[in-house]
Amino acid sequence: MSSKPPSLQGRRNAAKQLPRLPLSVFTPPNTGTSDKFPLPPSPSAVHPSKVIDAHVVGDPELGKWQKEIGEILGSRIYGVVLSALPDQISAVPKEIGNVKVVSATISFSPDDIASASAATEAASESAVPVSFSTVFTRSTPESVAALQHVLEKGRPVDIEISADGSLGDLEEFLLQATKDTESVNIPPIILSNILPPPHDFGLPIVKLMNNPSYRAYQEQTATLSLFPFVYVKYIPPVWGVATPSAPEPGATIENSGAKEQREWKRRIKMYLGPSIEAFGYERILFGSSSPRASSAASVAGDWYAVAREAIAEIGMEQEAMDCVFSANAEAVYGRK
């Protein structure tokens, strides 16, 4: 019996079929059909009914986060997935103010089975559902053993891909860590720092689209989606600059940040397309904290504004919007 999931057999070395969005996403109906096929609602009018922020890191009291979420995001916040160290887990409450703590994520060091053991032992002290988190740089016997140890607890595991990490190596890492387990018994593994992935923000978007790294991203995203237990987090990218702020009321186009927001959304949609085609909207989770590797932390409310509009502009309907911004996180992290 093969040790690899059946859906992956024969696919790793074969040519990958790149995901494509239908042309209708980019082309509105012509005027002759506009009565039968009305234009979708304006992106500015499409909001999730509620929001679970699935990536709040380094702010156990939520003080900084609550100052950053702003009025629009703040009015929709239902819950958070909050990071914690093993020795902090017993102090994490079920609610902070009027915000539900959907899960407490306990971090452990990669390549360190002792750290993984400490994280799983601390989990029993939590008053809320727990999950685990680590950083991936390379696949080693030690890192595989550490991941296997925490997966045995049946709880979700966040894996942030470091700046030096390779998505190709990540595929092998996941195969090795899960080869002896039926895929239906593997808890969710949630990848971050790949939607959107790091890239040179100074590279013109036309050149980026034709860059070999972009084609490689499409292929690798399609391959990773073949793991049915893998999800991706939709969080601020490592682009060397912070997410642009929303335009001030009455500000001119030149100094309002609108130009920067448009540029960000154009780039984000380049990566959203392949990710949605590969994973579906049921396996994408919104979060507001920047990856550890980021040198320019984004404000939570600013990222929500850009991230939400980018999704709305590619034509996602209300059900999909609600899944990405709340339902998926509740299903993944909130289960007992």
UniProtKB/TrEMBL annotation:
Gene Ontology molecular-function annotations: hydrolase activity
SUPFAM superfamilies for this protein: Metallo-dependent hydrolases
Annotated spans, Disordered: 1-44
Any matching Pfam family: Amidohydro_2
Amidohydrolase-related domain sequence ranges: 203-335
InterPro entries (alphabetical): Amidohydro-rel (IPR006680), Metal_Hydrolase (IPR032466), Metallo-dep_Lactonases (IPR052350)
Protein family according to the UniProt entry: Belongs to the metallo-dependent hydrolases superfamily.
Protein name: Amidohydrolase-related domain-containing protein
Protein's organism: Agaricus bisporus var. burnettii
